[in-house]
Amino acid sequence: WGDTNDADIGQEIEFDSTIIVRSGAENYIFHDKMSNGLEFIGITSITHQTSGENHILDPKYYTIINNPTDCEDDCTFEIVLTEDFHKHVNSGDRIIILYKARLTEDAVIGNDGNPNEVWLHYGDNSESTHDVTITKTYGFDLVKTTTDHKLLPGAKFKIYRDAQCTDAKIIKFVKLNGYKGTTYDVYRIATSEDIKAGTAVYEELEVTNGCIRIIGLDKDHYFLKETVAPDGYNLLKAPKEISLEFDNYLQFEQQKPLTNTGFQVVNQAGSILPETGATGIKIFVGVGMFTVIASGLLLVTKKRMSMIED
């Protein structure tokens, strides 16, 4: 839960928005606007918290409208609280709204993230401040080089979520052709929708030109297992850990790969085992809540487990 979170593409995100009721409350309308990378799934629950007790809010006190036409800000959905609702709440009561969205294939990759924005209309024509939470997903370049920093094609890898590299934890990918002008092959984590649609899914990734790009993963630790080494080079004997903390893409200087960019596996010919290198910078995420005028609207998120059974 927090103002920012991270997720794999295809994962569910749960949002928690809280309306703090003020005296004289009337004409409350809760608005939510999701960016293109988020797909609204539905409301999980609406709870009324009063005098330290929680009760499910009676549906007669609200109406949920998806894609409302009267919202000038192109809302994803809105919740209109009825006149009877305002008669049955006290100042300081809280209305807690839980709802879900899915991070889609259209998600923005990188630190800019995928915002979800909420606010409250109240009274005659008043509006609370807007509160935003951002869901992020990341990418990295998997790079094979020689000791003199030349790209080395021909290796094949599998990527796992556990250090033991068990079959149940292998990550499946789909291949994207011509992704945003990238010159290397690009693989995105496969979603349940990809699998249902019969889209070609890859467990083993070939580094054809010495570099491939992986996108759509959350901030986590992954384990890289080399299954085929380039001709004349040694196969990695043990999995290598990738600590994905931020986007990490290959950069060049004088047409040679910079050694601290991308996740690089440097190979030496003969009997010397290859080495690996990667860079990482901690991203510290501040978790907080915002107090807003009139109705104290709060928004936080948390990540659900992946919808894909790997």
Largest sheet: 12 strands, mixed
Oligomeric state: single chain
Structural class: mainly beta
| Spatial extent as radius of gyration | 24 Å
- Model regions low in confidence, pLDDT < 50 over at least 5 residues: 272-295, 304-310
Please report the total strand number as a whole number: 23
Mean pLDDT across residues: 85
User: Span between N and C termini?
Assistant: 25 Å
Shape: elongated
Number of contiguous helices: 2
> Helical percent range?
under 10%
β-strand percent reads over 45%
Write the element-wise H/E pattern from the N-terminal end onward: EEEEEEEHEEEEEEEHEEEEEEEEE
What does this structure look like?
With 310 residues, the chain is mainly beta. It contains 2 helices and 23 strands. The protein has helices at residues 83-87, 192-196, and strands spanning 4-6, 12-20, 29-34, 38-50, 53-56, 62-66, 77-81, 94-103, 110-122, 126-127, 131-146, 155-160, 173-176, 185-189, 205-207, 211-217, 220-228, 240-244, 252-253, 256-257, 263-267, 275-277, 298-303. The strands form 4 sheets. Strands 1, 3, 6, 7, 9, 10, 11, 13, 14, 16, 21 and 22 form a 12-stranded mixed beta sheet that branches. Strand 19 (252-253) and strand 20 form a beta hairpin. The longest helix has 5 residues, at 83-87.
